[in-house]
C-alpha cells in the first residue's frame, strides 16, 4: 500500500479482515490489547512538553475518558481478539503485488474492546479528515463480514465514541509533541485533531461500548 | 437515512410526487431542500382544483451523510469552504496521507 496514494486505500479489505479477526476466538489466554496503553504513552510524552496553548485542550479531553480507555482499569471486554494498532500501513498484499490483503504486525494484539480497532478511521472521519464515502465503505465492509464491534445497523457511535475520542487524543498528542519539538506550528490536519479535542469537553461521552445485537 | 432526533431508521414515502422521509419510531418527518415548497405548491393547486403538476426535480439529490459524534468537525463546510465538508476537499493533505500509515 503506497502512502503517496491514499485514494487507493483498501477500505473493504480492511473492514473485512478486521471483522474476521474479531470473530476469531482467542486461541490461548492473551494479555489485553495495547491500544489504551499506547494512547496513555502518547499523552504522557505530551505532558512532558509542559504548559503550551493547545496542550491543555488535549489533556482535558483525555481526562474525561473512562478509566479503561486511559489504561487505568481493565477493559469492559476481556474476550474479543483485537489488533490493537490498526492503520493502513498494517495491510499488505501477499504475494505482492496481486495477492490477497493480509493484516500484519501483532505487537499490540490481545483481547479487549473491538471498537478500538475501528476507532482510527472513525476518528479521522469525525475530525473531517476522512471523506464520508470512505468511512462508509470501511464500516459497511466490517458490518457485512459480521464484525461484532458495532450493531449490525443503526447508529454505530454509541460503541465508537469513547475509542474514537481516545484515538483522536492519541493522534493529536503525537502531532503536538512532534510540532513542539520541531518548534513549528500545527498544520491544518493536525489542528483539526486538536480542535476536535477542544470540542470534546463540551460534548458528554456516549455510553459505550454496547454489545452487538 | 436515520432520524436526527431518535436515530431510528427513516422510510421514504412518495406524496404527490414529493419524496418525504418518515421516522419508523417517532414518526417525525424530514423534507429535503425544496420539498416543503413543492408540498405547499401542490396544496395550493389542490384548493384551486387544478390538475397536479408532474413531479419536478428539486435541487440535487442529497447524499446521505453517515452519523458522526457531537464533537466531530462541523459537517457540510469547514473553514469557509462550503461544499467541501471537512479538510479532504478535492486534494488530500500530505500530512493526512502520512497519518493514515502511522501508529
Automatic annotation (TrEMBL), chain B:
Protein name: Zf-TFIIB domain containing protein
Organism from which the protein derives: Streptomyces phaeoluteigriseus
UniProt cross-references to InterPro entries, sorted A to Z: TF_Znf
Listed Pfam families: Zn_ribbon_TFIIB
Superkingdom as given in the UniProt entry: Bacteria
Coiled coil: none
Region (Disordered): 42-103
Bias type Gly residues, positions: 74-88
Listed Pro residues bias regions: 50-69
Signal peptide: none
Domain Transcription factor zinc-finger per the UniProt entry, residue ranges: 2-40
